[in-house]
Amino acid sequence: MSADCGDSKVTLVICGGGNGAHAWSGIASSQPNTEVRVLTLFRDEAQRWSDSLQKGDFTVSFYQNGEKCSELKTKPSLVTNDPAKAIPGSDVIAFVLPAFAHEQYLHAIKPFMEPGMILVGLPGQAGFEFQPKAILGDLSNQITLVNYESLPWATRLNEFGKSCDVLGTKNAMMGALKIGSATPKQDPYTVVQRLIGEKPVLTTKGHLLTVTMMSVNAYIHTSIVYDKWAEWDGKPLDEKPAFYHAISQDGATLLCNASEEVLSLTQDIMQHSPGTDLSGTIHILDWYKKCYAPEIEDASTLYTALRTCKVYNGLTHPMTKTADGKWVPDFTNRYTTEDVMFGLTVIRGIAEIVGMATPKIDKILTWTQEKLGKKYLVDGKLQGEDVKETRAPQRYGLTSLQELIDI
Ligand code: NAI
Question: What residue's CA is closest to ligand 1, atom 40?
Fold first, then answer.
């Protein structure tokens, strides 16, 4: 392991071409002794981004309270769709893209990966730890895996390949890791901090399952969607309803109960396997206080915290416009797709292996899968035909707690 990660050169490959990839490519390129390459396999993104860099500046603008406060004009050294150009010689490979695309990237980078490389999910989302073994085989044990609970920034692309805005930067973020059998090419506890700068302050410790448990959108978003639409009478609405701010007391209780099931699950795992550190798993109300304390007017209960959290101002349920200008819910968005396939099914699958009942999670999942026309939970088990498109451990043939821990 590098003794002084601050001085040695780091080569980072950012996989993805969206908002987060844009922001980090500028931010990481501005760190000392850092080479940044971007690998994007999506359509013609690599060509367009590369062309744009050749023509002019690449700007990342930072905002505070809606006001622009600073900007960076540093560029990645390479943007390519060719893993043979991006991966060899790199230290850190980071997935900064929606979880459904991870599989494609793992297949693409596999031939060029070497023992000791560090694969980072920023964020990796739930089940990030199960996929590499299935695709990389033995190599997955020789690389180091690190997963973070979210993206450090709220960020939006401005002009593709040219500029993006960082609207907010988190104060703190949690991550977990599994060190590979080959010595990591950089210190995996600190290298991502070095590549993102001072904020958010990263705590990187514990078993990777912690981040799966704390992939909170899996239960926040799905509880809110259930709360709003499970009893809906089918009549189109005049306006798009607020997403977080319109949660009902029953919805907040459901989310609270789902979070308690996740906590019980982690406590059960730690009881059966005392060496497994899942201590980063916390109750959803504590998570809100940790992440958004200054933005929440009333954090006395989960219900009030969600309804008074200012970062959620203006956010509405994803809706589709009807011919007569009214609104009906759109269940094909990421709150019901990604957050189920790379979220709720993963947690439910772990619970099934551990032998823990999760009635509230089951209630949400059963209703959501029906809306999606999918079959995940069948006869109380995660055995439906669509489990193969999720990252639930069942998809990878994992059947025991020991296998989950050893992954
Ligand atoms: P994004 O929505 O900007 O990602 C789009 C990119 O994903 C595309 O540019 C393309 O490179 C890739 N992509 C899209 N469809 C693809 C396909 N069919 N095949 C292959 N690649 C495809 O994502 P963003 O905003 O950069 O977020 C990355 C991750 O960070 C996501 O998991 C997101 O939930 C999470 N996140 C994002 C935040 C933000 O402010 N942008 C905040 C917190 C979390």
Answer: 154
